[in-house]
Amino acid sequence: MNAQKTGSLIAAIRKEQNHTQQDLANELGVSSAAISKWERGIGFPDVSLIEPLATSLGITIAELLKGERIENGDANEYENLLSDVVKVSKNEISKKKKISNWIIAITVAVLYLLISIITQKWEITWVVWIVYCFYRIFTEYIYKKY
After folding, report:
1. 32 φ, ψ to 5°?
2. Does residue 128 lie within any of the structural domains?
3. Most exposed: 19, 67, 87, 125, by fewest CB within 10 Å?
4. 38 within a domain of the structure (yes/no)
5. CA dist., res. 69 & res. 71, Å (int)
6. Are 59 and 96 contained in the same domain?
7. At 85, is the secondary structure helix, strand, or coil?
8. Would 54 be classed as within a structural domain?
9. How high is the mean pLDDT of the chain?
10. What does the alpha-carbon distance between residue 64 and residue 70 come to, in Å, rounded to a whole number?
């Protein structure tokens, strides 16, 4: 992957479609500065934006990542493979966010519990929070199993 080539392709197709950077940014839910960085080859789109960007530009993911149009019939095979890679990457990002959220929630619950034990004051909201955290952990574990 070459960020310069990909950026040039993004810019060329965007201009062919008579779209501004802001138009493309609005469609993808990013800033026009992000589009500018991609087009100048300074940055590369987030993996979660690869598929929507390719769709918006009317090209395949393989073409986007390669930074040039692909004319031969192998494009379909590459496209399916790259689409699967993008989906797996999105799932991994989602899992990591979920784990981070749970770590934060459990940490807060434990802190509430410790504060309650130390101060000997049991605020009802703290108890509800702790019960909720354990309820979520239990239900996610059950859903994950089935």
Report:
1. -65, -25
2. yes
3. 125
4. yes
5. 6
6. no
7. helix
8. yes
9. 80
10. 10
- SS3 state of residue 123: coil
- With tokens 């504060």, the residue in question is 115
Task: Specify if 108 maps to a domain.
Answer: yes
Query: How much is the pTM?
Result: 0.55
The closest of 55, 52, 57, 50 to 86, measured between CA atoms, is 50
CB distance 21 to 39 below 8 Å: yes
Q: CA–CA separation, 93 vs 85, rounded Å? A: 12
- Point out the domain boundary residue: 12, 33, 66: 66
pLDDT digits (tens, 9 = 90+) for 63-110: 887 788 877 655 566 666 667 677 767 777 777 777 777 787 778 777
Amino acid at 64: L
The closest of 29, 46, 30, 32 to 11, measured between CA atoms, is: 32
CATH of the domain at 35: 1.10.260.40
